[in-house]
Each structure stands twice: as structure tokens, then as C-alpha cells.
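Renewal narrative, Specific Aim 1. Our central claim is that a sequence can be written position by position from structural information alone. The example that follows is taken directly from our test logs and has not been curated for this report. It begins with the C-alpha cells describing the chain, in the order in which they were read.
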């Protein structure tokens, strides 16, 4: 009985344990897992699918796949169900479209399609660019995920074994395992198909993995906009210009080009090609300049720039219709004179005249220049010479002794073969010739009361001598009593001088002046030009001279007295 009582509780315990084990599924002892066929996917070029595999599912139990995309705070039911009938691995495909964001994706397995029970989780990443095709100068974004949070990711771009400038670069992943990197494609960027490589530690397994994908870079288009119109009219030889703003598709300036030109258009004529020159690198402003020749047609022109003919230094080409400027008119050049004309010119010298004729651009006219000089009813046209070293024209007129005095008109005229012309008249005065006096050694010393012969050379401005055929010369000096003696000079044809012959006075010195005139009105006065020092004579010589004078004066006095006496007597004895 006692044994029976003991056996009953043991049997009950056995039955309880048996029933408990019967209600338990031995599969639950192994955790359910999900995984993807690779940890990171390129957004482009894989067919757009992710294969998801679940293992250790409970037989005959339906599981539901939930997906949390980047920047979503909760996972969403994907409507892809996993049903395990035998408890083995089960797979399904998840589509990734170009509209899906790059980054880190979270997969979650649930037995409910209304609530995520997180039976198992897994992460995978999607890496890509914001476009498959780019143009130079565009901003490119490379983004992705699936990496260990806050880890370092290496990004490289290359093509045909050439590394893209500025790469590779290292990027730090965000806390979600995602990353994003922006960079601007330069105008010189490599074109064609390029390969991007992203390498880093994967989110779940912390193993290095690499993902590759391709994208295409094309040349940028270039646009042209007119920002400055040419002037309404321009003189020949001057420059006329127009300005364009040339930019890439993103609006950045174009700063370098190959043989950039614009055309100057005249109806019915062949276009004139002119260079385009960068004038502002910051704004991308280019200037087309045409230097109008002296022979340019007097007509209406305009600039025309065809963007399709413009190529920058990297092969990027312009696009758009021709840009046509407003019209401008070419007019004749206004010539400028720079004459050198003396205010006065003396007879017997040359009236020397020079002139430089300039076009508006500063170049000189080297032909078709004439000079005319007139006075009263007389006209002269001197021959001109041109000096190519300084662009100066020269001409002269010799003025004779009796040349007309007064105002002379000087007229310069220039007429080039293309109709650019100018005439200008200036005035100058012709005045009488002024003689020059050359006297022998100054400050000479002579004895008083002696005879002196002083030769004086009188010349015209041209150096020729004044002769007694055309004029006369006088000299003068002032004595000690301020009396001025005027003495004529005698012409000496032998040596061409005028000789001053006079009796030296008894005084300390004498300062001589001279005056010369000719019959044509030419004259000159030379005041106090010669200092004559006079030496006193000895006393005994003076006495002899005085005695001689007295001896002469007494007889003359006696004779005068006798005549007066006789005359008086005769008057007294008249009856």
C-alpha cells in the first residue's frame, strides 16, 4: 500500500512532464535568422532586387517581412510573406528602384502583418548617386549605407585606370551606418563612363566589403548672353566692342577657350572675324573688339556671336541661337593736326614749319599732306618731307631782304585715299631783319686827341653783310658834358666792314653805340656796345698844342681888330 502511494505521485509527475514536452516544439531551441545575399547593393546596375533568406522558421507558421527604409522611424509591412511548411530556409525577393533612397535598410521578421514582433532583424545598404548621368559643373551626390556606425568609409572614382582628381577620400559614417558626400564636377572633369568604389565594414558582420557602380559624365553646355552693346557710332581707326557673359550650365563662368571669335557683319560683305578676350574671370565676361581700319566702309554694322562655334579649353561647347548685337555706324576719321608755327620770323631767315597728322587712334598719316603759305596776293607751296621715325611733316619758305611784312597765312591740308580729311589755317608774322654788330676787341685804350679808325661788321640774320648799296651805318658817343656826337661810318668794300673814323676827345673814356638801316626797313640799334678807354697825353705836348692854337688865334685876332679900326675911322671923317 505504501509503495502504491509513492508510485502515484511519480506517475502523475511523469504524465505532466510528458504532456509538457508534447506541447513544446523542439525547433524553438534554435533562433530564427534572416539575411541578404550581399550586405551592400549598388543602386544602379544589379537588376533591382535583394534576395532575402530566412532560416529556422517554425513549420506551418506564416512570417511577415517588415522593412524600414532610410529616414523612416518605424518599419513597414512589405506585403512579402515568408511561409515555412517544412521548417527549412525560405527566400523571397525585394525590389529596389532608382526612387528608393540610398542608405541603411532594416529588415525585420514578424509573425504578424499588423505588428512587427521582431522575430529576427538584419541590415543591408544601398549605395548610389543622385543620377546616372551628369554634365560637367553639376554637383554630384554619392550616398549609401549598410556600414558600421561612425566607421571610416573609403570612396574612389576612376576610369580606365585613371583616378579622378581629388579622390580617393575618406568619409565617416553616421550613427545609422549611412553616409553622403557632395562634390562639384569641374569643367575639366573626365567624361564618359566612370566607376565609383565604396569600401568599408558592413553593419551586421563587421567585415570589409566593396561595392562598385558606374555613372556617366558628359561635357557641359555653354550659354551666351549679351551684357554690353556697342556704341551707336565709331570713327575710323577707333575700336568698337561688345561684351558677352559666357557660362556653364550651372551658371559658373567660363574662363578659358580655344580660338574664341565673334564676327562683325556688314550686309553683302564677308564677315570680319575678331577675337574674344576674357575681361572678368569672376563673372565670365568676354569682349569682342574690332579696330576699324581707315578704309572701313561708311556703313552700318553689327556683331554676331554663334555659341555653337565656341569651345572652351576642355571641350565643352556652346549651345543656343546666334547672339546679334545692336547696329553701329562707322563714320570718317577726324584727323588731328599738331603744327609747330613760329609767332614771328625775321627777313633773311627761313619760315620753318612742321606738322604731325594723327588719326583718332594715334597713328600718323604718312601721305597726302600739303602746305600752302600766302601773304597778300602771293602764294607759295613748299615741298614737304616726311620723317617716318616721328611721323612729322616739314616744309620751309626763305624770306628775302624785302619780303612782305606782316601776317602770313599757313594752311595745312590732309586727305587720305579713303576720304578722311582736314584743312586748318594758322597765322604767323614776318618782321624786319635785325642787324648784328661785331666790333673788334672791346675795351681798347687809345690816346686822347688822336685819330681812330674802328671797323664794325654789320650783318643780316642770315650772316650776309650790309653794304652801302642797300643801307648806311652811324656811330655815336656822349662826351663829358652829355653832348652826343653822331658820326657816319664809311663802308670798306675790301673787308666788308664799316669804319668809324674820328678824333679822340680829351676825356676819361667814351661808350660807343651804333645804328644801321637799309632801304627795305630792316634796322637795328646797338646801344653802348663798345667801351673806349682814352689815355691822357703828356703836359709838354699839351703846351705845344695850346701854343700852336694860341699862335693861330692871335694873328686872326689882330686882323679882326685892324679891320674894325679902319672901318670906324672912315665913318668918323665923312663930310
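The sequence written for that structure reads:
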Amino acid at each position: 500500500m505504501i509503495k502504491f502511494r509513492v508510485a502515484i505521485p511519480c506517475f502523475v509527475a511523469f504524465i505532466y512532464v510528458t504532456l509538457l514536452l508534447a506541447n513544446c516544439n523542439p525547433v524553438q531551441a534554435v533562433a530564427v535568422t534572416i539575411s541578404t545575399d550581399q550586405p551592400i547593393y549598388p543602386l544602379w546596375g544589379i537588376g533591382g532586387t535583394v534576395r532575402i533568406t530566412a532560416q529556422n522558421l517554425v513549420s506551418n507558421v506564416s512570417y511577415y517581412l517588415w522593412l524600414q527604409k532610410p529616414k523612416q522611424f518605424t518599419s513597414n509591412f512589405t506585403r512579402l510573406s515568408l511561409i515555412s511548411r517544412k521548417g527549412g530556409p525560405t527566400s523571397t525577393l525585394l525590389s529596389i528602384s532608382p526612387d528608393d533612397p540610398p542608405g541603411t535598410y532594416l529588415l525585420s521578421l514578424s509573425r504578424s502583418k499588423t505588428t512587427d514582433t521582431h522575430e529576427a532583424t538584419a541590415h543591408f545598404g544601398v549605395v548610389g548617386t543622385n543620377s546616372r548621368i551628369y554634365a560637367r559643373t553639376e554637383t554630384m551626390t554619392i550616398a549609401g549605407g549598410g556600414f558600421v556606425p561612425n566607421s571610416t568609409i573609403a570612396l574612389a572614382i576612376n576610369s580606365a585606370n585613371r583616378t579622378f582628381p581629388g579622390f580617393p577620400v575618406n568619409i565617416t559614417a553616421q550613427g545609422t551606418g549611412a553616409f553622403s558626400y557632395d562634390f562639384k564636377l569641374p569643367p575639366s572633369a573626365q567624361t564618359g563612363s566612370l566607376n565609383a568604389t565604396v569600401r568599408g565594414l558592413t553593419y551586421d558582420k563587421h567585415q570589409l566589403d566593396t561595392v562598385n557602380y558606374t555613372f556617366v559624365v558628359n561635357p557641359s553646355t555653354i550659354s551666351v548672353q549679351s551684357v554690353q552693346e556697342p556704341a551707336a557710332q565709331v570713327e575710323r581707326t577707333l575700336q568698337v566692342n561688345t561684351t558677352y557673359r559666357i557660362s556653364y550650365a550651372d551658371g559658373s563662368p567660363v574662363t578659358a577657350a580655344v580660338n574664341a571669335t565673334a564676327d562683325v557683319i556688314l550686309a553683302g560683305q564677308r564677315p570680319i572675324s575678331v577675337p574674344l578676350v576674357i575681361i572678368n574671370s569672376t563673372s565670365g565676361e568676354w569682349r569682342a573688339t574690332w579696330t576699324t581700319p581707315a578704309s572701313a566702309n561708311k556703313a552700318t554694322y553689327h556683331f554676331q556671336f554663334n555659341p555653337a562655334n565656341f569651345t572652351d579649353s576642355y571641350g565643352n561647347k556652346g549651345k543656343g541661337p546666334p547672339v546679334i548685337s545692336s547696329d553701329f555706324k562707322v563714320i570718317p576719321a577726324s584727323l588731328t593736326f599738331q603744327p609747330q608755327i613760329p609767332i614771328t620770323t625775321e627777313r633773311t631767315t627761313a619760315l620753318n614749319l612742321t606738322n604731325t597728322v594723327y588719326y583718332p587712334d594715334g597713328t600718323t598719316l604718312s601721305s597726302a599732306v600739303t602746305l600752302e603759305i600766302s601773304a597778300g596776293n602771293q602764294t607759295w607751296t613748299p615741298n614737304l618731307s616726311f620723317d617716318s621715325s616721328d611721323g612729322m611733316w616739314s616744309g620751309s619758305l626763305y624770306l628775302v631782304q624785302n619780303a612782305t611784312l606782316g601776317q602770313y597765312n599757313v594752311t595745312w591740308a590732309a586727305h587720305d585715299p579713303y576720304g578722311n580729311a582736314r584743312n586748318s589755317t594758322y597765322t604767323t608774322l614776318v618782321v624786319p631783319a635785325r642787324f648784328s654788330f661785331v666790333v673788334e676787341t672791346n675795351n681798347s685804350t687809345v690816346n686822347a686827341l688822336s685819330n681812330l679808325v674802328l671797323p664794325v661788321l654789320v650783318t643780316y640774320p642770315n650772316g650776309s653783310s650790309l653794304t652801302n648799296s642797300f643801307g648806311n651805318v652811324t656811330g655815336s658817343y656822349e662826351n663829358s658834358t652829355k653832348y652826343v656826337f653822331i658820326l657816319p661810318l664809311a663802308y670798306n668794300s675790301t673787308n666788308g666792314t664799316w669804319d668809324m673814323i674820328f678824333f679822340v676827345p680829351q676825356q676819361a673814356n667814351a661808350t660807343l653805340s651804333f645804328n644801321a638801316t637799309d632801304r627795305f626797313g630792316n634796322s637795328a640799334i646797338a646801344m653802348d656796345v663798345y667801351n673806349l678807354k682814352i689815355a691822357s697825353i703828356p703836359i709838354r705836348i699839351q703846351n705845344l698844342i695850346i701854343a700852336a692854337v694860341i699862335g693861330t688865334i692871335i694873328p686872326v685876332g689882330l686882323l679882326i681888330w685892324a679891320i674894325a679900326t679902319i672901318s670906324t675911322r672912315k665913318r668918323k671923317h665923312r663930310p
